[in-house]
Design a protein that fits this description.
This protein has five helices and nine strands; from the N terminus they run H-H-E-E-H-E-E-H-E-E-H-E-E-E. It has 240 residues and is an alpha+beta fold. It has one domain: Sortase (Sortase, Chain: A), CATH 2.40.260.10. Strands 1, 2, 3, 4, 5, 6, 7, 8 and 9 form a nine-stranded mixed β-sheet that branches.
């Protein structure tokens, strides 16, 4: 008579354990597996369209443009996972959810240029966004630059445009809210540009002594960094 209740209790515990295991797999393991697959597919695509030297018949971005005509550049930062094409949409939402090929990709997204910025990065301030994903995917490595020693040892990246490859010299790192003045894109006068540069210097947690001037072309790389709600890490460089 006593074994029946024990068997019932054991059955309930086994069922509860099974349910917990299923929920863990469904909410943690399976999404990460799908993200791994989406990331692998996108990285394989990127490898096949990596910039080549320009010739008389094309540009360094010709292969990428064949896949996505909205590509604007290719960004590479040594000793990080950041080696990606940059696209631009008509808003700042599309590439939060879609990959470079335009397909939904498990919210991995793709690096993209702010729709308000000049497509050829000729404006005073060009802002590029990407998610901060697990396993250092997308722009997660931007957070490495909050360590001053890392910025000092990795002062440059490259930005490949249709006219060739440009050096990007990094000089500041900021942690700011998503609504911060760092995300301004319209500057009409040198006074406005100087005020913006002064703001960057005052807001920076890491700042190199040699900075830009009003005639510079800035590149801001922005991602979530989770210090607080809506926190953003912003790496600031100068396109040379």
């Amino acid at each position: 008579m006593k074994r029946a209740p024990l068997i019932g209790i054991l059955a309930v515990l086994v069922a509860a354990a099974g349910l917990c295991a299923y929920r863990y797999y469904d909410t943690a393991v399976l999404p990460e597996k799908r993200l791994d697959e989406a990331d692998a597919q996108q990285l394989a695509l990127f490898e096949s369209i990596r910039p080549a030297s320009a010739d008389a018949n094309g540009t360094p971005l010709e292969a990428a443009q064949a896949v996505n005509a909205s590509v604007t550049a290719w960004l590479t930062i040594p000793d990080t996972h950041i080696d990606y094409p940059i696209a631009q949409a008509e808003d700042n939402d599309f590439y939060l959810h879609h990959g470079f090929d335009g397909a939904l990709n498990q919210e991995l997204g793709c690096p993209f240029l702010d729709y308000r910025c000049e497509r050829d990065f000729s404006g005073f301030n060009s802002i590029v966004y990407a998610h901060h994903m697990t396993r250092q995917r997308m722009f997660a490595d931007i957070a490495l630059f909050k360590d001053e020693s890392f910025l000092q040892s990795h002062p440059e990246g490259t930005l490949t445009l249709p006219d060739g490859t440009h050096t990007v010299r990094f000089y500041a790192y900021l942690t700011v809210p998503s609504t911060a003045p760092a995300y301004h894109t319209v500057f009409v006068t040198d006074v406005q540009r100087r005020e913006y540069l002064d703001y960057i210097a005052s807001a920076a947690s890491v700042l190199q002594p040699t900075g830009p001037d009003e005639s510079s072309r800035l590149l801001l790389l922005s991602t979530c960094t989770f210090e607080y709600e809506e926190a953003r890490g912003v790496l600031v460089g100068v396109i040379e």
